[in-house]
Amino acid sequence: MKSIARKRKFPKGFLFLLVSTVLSTSLGFIAPIPAIAVPVTAAGDSAGSCTQNVSDSAGIVVTKVGNDCVVQFKNTGSITWTPSTNISVRYLVVAGGGSGTRGYCGVYWGQGGGGGEVLTGNSLSLTSNVAVTVNVGSGAPRTGDCTETPGSNGSNSVLSSLTARGGKASLNSRTSTPTGAWGGISGNGNSGGNGGANGVNCSGGSCGAGGGGGAGGTGSGFDAGQGINYDIISIGTNVMYGSGGAGWAGGSAGLTQSGGATPGSSLCDAPENRGGGGSDCNGHAATGGKGGSGLIVVRYAFDVTAPTITSSANYSAQENQTTVGTATANETVTWSKVSGVDSASVTIISATGVITFNLSPDFEAPTDVGANNVYNLTIRATDTAGNTTDQAIAITVIDVVDTSSFNSFSLAGAATTATFRTQIIITANVTVSSKITFWVNGKVIPGCKNRTASGSASSFTVNCAWRPSRRGDLKISAQAIPISGSVTSSTPSPISVRVLNRTGKR
Known about the structure:
Number of domains: 3
Structural class: mainly beta
Strand order of the largest sheet: 1-2-5-10-11-12
Distance between the termini: 67 Å
Radius of gyration: 41 Å
Number of helices: 1
């Protein structure tokens, strides 16, 4: 029995992918796969005014509020965001919070972690189609186990050129003094206090917002430091970001600020996307609570202004050609036809606005609906935000003198002699599509009657293969009869040629 081997079909491109993978692996690297822009659209935004292009849509929340687009980046990690237009955004950049600690059991109580830095502003300029780095910082994980083990710092958050620094961890020590600000109501990366008073500001004025963590032990400063209130998501409704985590002292919990963690409870972990510091988990875990993850929000007014068409509504075009003109606008737009009795006769290129006739118009035989050589239609300009402007245009076809002519008429190599009974090529080039007949001394050259010239624009060519059957001085002439009956025929100046005897035998 004859066996038949079945061929296995692989998807298109499989072999390329396989070879690329093998080569990459053998060379010790894996070729990167380019990021693909993923559109994220706001609910109810049928016009797509707030659609965002990102490399990963997870954790992206887009809302359309009046004439504003609000974009929230919630998931930790780095992605790219590519604005579709030039925009100036109001922004909120919150870093991840630091973790609290459990303290040193039987010796002193745990302290709160510092809140992440909070950056706010109203005028960050971003450029159309230029990718922006967006990295939301993570909160520090739970840490500390009743030993003098310090907590962990939160991660930075990045938006384009802006970097919010992560909140510092509780140092978990009664004696060590943390570097920089601690237990403060503001200041980047404030660490948890070690018994000092709450409310110490970041020195030097070089720090952004971020509440300090509360102290542990028996000191009076175990309350959490306050973060920053901001209303970017809902105008008029403030939310606090970057609060410190509260400490614990001898059975008393420090004051918890909004957005921070609650000490001595199952809520000792700071809530996500607020950048708060973690607190002492007293009684619920032998650890300090984790810091809250950061958040990045941008808000901007989307374009609601329709484009202005700057080109004329009236065009003139000569007959026997397709060129009409170019539509222009005051901003980048795409062009289309939307209506008009003669719209089927015309094409407009969407990217450039170039307008052409589909077929060359004939003034003597108009095809417009009014039969008056005026073609009427409406064009539309659509900007990148989806705003549109329509314009009714009229294209008037202009009559031109309908004559044809010869661009050239010659023997091969511009020869002035030919050889008896030896083929030589005669070439004619004319300005319009024509049928051309060739003569020698007034007689049609065999095979060269009504030969169709081919080409385009104003260059149409045809050849005639001539075998002279007479010797001596002869004259070659031609006539071009245009295919369009409205164009007159033409003749070139005749060619004088001397036909010589052949040399050698046949």
